[in-house]
Design brief:
This is LacI family transcriptional regulator. The chain contains twelve helices and twelve strands. It has 341 residues and is of the alpha/beta class. The protein is elongated, with a radius of gyration of 24 Å.
Length: 341
């Protein structure tokens, strides 16, 4: 004996509404009254109806898929962001695809081009494209960025503020010559940290030595450590934890005592930061919260948009710009100590 899978028309007939109304109730409920939406959902539940991705795309113009684009999927920084995005999308019945652009601007643009046809929107984490290109892509499809606002919109982790906290911590320990091992040239966050660190260094009476740029990877830490040793500094503030791990590896190989002869600070508080010995002093960022909030902003935009086009204007008018600045804080562990005398 076979059973016929219930259709959207079956749901509409059971709820006493048109098929188009049933479709809106299940895909864009904000466009009909709550009573009607509740009646349609109850009918769908009673019949055991679930929309297929292809059917949903045909009836609503949506695929039910959101892309998360990251520059390096192996970087633990993005693990929390992936989790936050996934949890928020799952709550609204969306699937997400993860795209790794391997720190390549052409790969990032190629992904955005392909995703216009295959995803309803994009969460773009730490984008590497130029500002003008990023603004253009955001006009062509719904995009919410993390750590790189576009046209006054996005989610930003206050790592510049966290870097200043780290510098203040080092100054309180007597460090007067500190290196900042900078990240990629294409990193918006890195540029803003340098902008924040320079006046803070003057205020604190610290000689700030900017080294790099370096790839945000453990393998790049050896070069950063060698440069720091050659710059006669007593502390290194690294762009991220992976770079800081590499700095620690190289200092150990060189026989440099940490923190006795050199203090080291990372950024992000990724998995493993408290497992290295000594534990890494680092700037902690709410990564999962950032992913969740970015997905929430994107879903709100999709809900208000009348189509899958990049124009974020729908029946209720344009969405206002919204930048969420999420605070960071310094976690002091064993890699920082008093400046050597």
């Amino acid at each position: 004996m076979t059973t016929t899978r219930p259709t959207l028309r079956d749901v509409a007939d059971a709820a006493g509404v048109a098929v188009s109304t049933a479709s809106r109730a299940l895909t864009r409920p904000g466009r009909i009254t709550e009573d009607t939406a509740a009646r349609v959902r109850a009918a769908a539940d009673a019949l055991g109806y679930t929309a297929s991705p292809s059917g949903r795309a045909l009836s609503s113009g949506r695929t039910g898929t959101v892309a998360l684009v990251v520059p390096d999927v192996t970087n633990p920084f993005f693990f929390g962001i992936v989790r936050g995005v996934q949890n928020r999308l799952r709550a609204d019945g969306y699937m997400h695809v993860l795209v790794d652009t391997e720190e390549s601007v052409p790969a990032e643009e190629r992904a955005l081009r392909m995703l216009r046809a295959s995803a309803d929107g994009v969460v773009l984490a730490a984008p590497r494209v130029e500002d003008a290109d990023l603004a253009r892509w955001a006009r062509e499809q719904p995009i919410v960025t993390i750590n790189r606002p576009v046209d006054g919109d996005g989610v930003v982790l206050d790592t510049p503020g966290g870097a200043v906290q780290a510098l203040e911590h080092l100054a309180s320990l007597g460090h007067r010559r500190v290196a900042y091992a900078s990240g990629p040239r294409t990193s918006w966050s890195d540029r803003h940290r340098r902008v924040a660190l320079r006046p803070a260094a003057r205020r604190l009476g610290v000689d700030l030595v900017v080294l790099g740029p370096y790839a945000p990877q453990r393998e790049a830490g050896a070069a950063a450590a060698d440069a720091a040793c050659g710059a006669d500094v007593t502390a290194v503030l690294a762009f991220n934890d992976l770079l800081a791990f590499g700095v620690l590896d190289r200092l150990t190989a060189r026989g440099v005592d940490v923190p006795g002869a050199m203090s080291v600070v990372g950024c992000d508080d990724v998995f493993g930061a408290d497992l290295v010995r000594p534990g890494l002093t680092t700037v902690a960022a709410p990564l999962e919260r950032a992913g969740h909030r970015a997905a929430d902003l994107l879903l709100s935009r999709l809900d208000r948009s009348g189509s899958r086009a990049g124009d974020s204007r729908g029946a209720r008018g344009p969405l206002p710009p919204s930048v969420d600045l999420l605070p960071t804080h310094l976690v002091v562990r064993g890699t920082t100590g008093p400046a050597p005398v």
